[in-house]
Write a structure and sequence with these properties.
10 strands, 11 helices, Rossmann fold, 40% helix, alpha/beta, 252 residues, 4-stranded antiparallel sheet
């Protein structure tokens, strides 16, 4: 059984289609890359899987996680699934973190930590900060996001995304806000964690060169539609669509 299976998924806002009849599946431990220019529907599709589309979104088709249908799932049940089942690394770490709360308090929110249990929670948080190779995690606990670099904030966002042992991680343009050197470090970080923890991953990027480093297969989207899906090596060796060829040329 696939970890994740989408069949004929369509999404629209006020009758205007943004996702057109998309189907694909993700197996245990697999990484699928989703490529395409801004506005093609990549992030909308990710939000549909996580159940965080705006209330005015109309979605049809089927999205199953470990055989369980997600479309129409009650929010209370979906909330339990997020974090421990499906988790997400968002594009902008500064936007993903609360600027007025210390890092440790943002982890407490995820864990549902009571005041009496904060000492043991701190030890757990430090463990996850070490997993993403942050130096001096004991001091980072008491800092605010504005006191941290972009790379540090993205590592913290990744630590938050994995701290409840998800089976599926969605990484939505996780390096686009970072410089080239830090970008490579974050890619290596995610691949190391995937190997260590064994989760499946959907990696979204407009950059095919980046996807070639992480994805087993790549889906190419254009104007809300899936126009190509191949194993990564095959896609680069024999792209079928003109648009895919243009993306590959831009990545070289």
């Amino acid at each position: 059984m696939p970890y994740l299976e989408l069949k004929n998924v369509c999404i629209s806002y006020s009758g205007s289609a943004v996702i057109n009849d998309i189907s694909f599946s993700l197996q245990k431990g697999e990484t699928i890359g989703i490529a395409g220019e801004s506005g093609c529907g990549k992030s909308t599709l990710a939000k549909a899987v996580l159940g965080i589309l705006p209330k005015n979104a109309d979605i049809t088709g089927s999205i199953k996680y470990c055989g369980k249908e997600l479309i129409g799932m009650p929010e209370k049940e979906f909330a339990k699934l997020r974090g421990g089942g499906i988790s997400m690394v968002f594009q902008d770490p500064s936007a993903a973190l609360n600027p007025v709360r210390k890092i440790k308090h943002q982890f407490y929110d995820i864990f549902g930590t009571r005041r009496s249990a904060r000492k043991s929670a701190d030890e757990k948080i430090i463990h996850f900060l070490r997993l993403v190779h942050l130096q001096a995690p004991e001091t980072i606990l008491n800092r605010y996001p504005a006191q941290l670099s972009g790379g540090m904030k993205q590592r913290i966002v990744i630590a938050m995304a994995i701290c409840k042992a998800p089976q599926l991680l969605i990484a939505d343009e996780p390096t686009s806000a970072l410089d080239a050197e830090i970008r490579l470090q974050i890619i290596e970080e995610l691949m190391s964690l995937k190997k260590h923890l064994g989760f499946g991953m959907i990696y979204i990027s407009h950059n095919l060169a980046e996807l070639s480093k992480v994805a087993d297969s790549i889906l190419v989207m254009k104007n809300g539609s899936l126009i190509e899906c191949q194993k990564t090596a095959e896609l680069f060796a024999n792209p079928r669509q003109t648009y895919t060829k243009e993306l590959i040329a831009a990545a070289e």
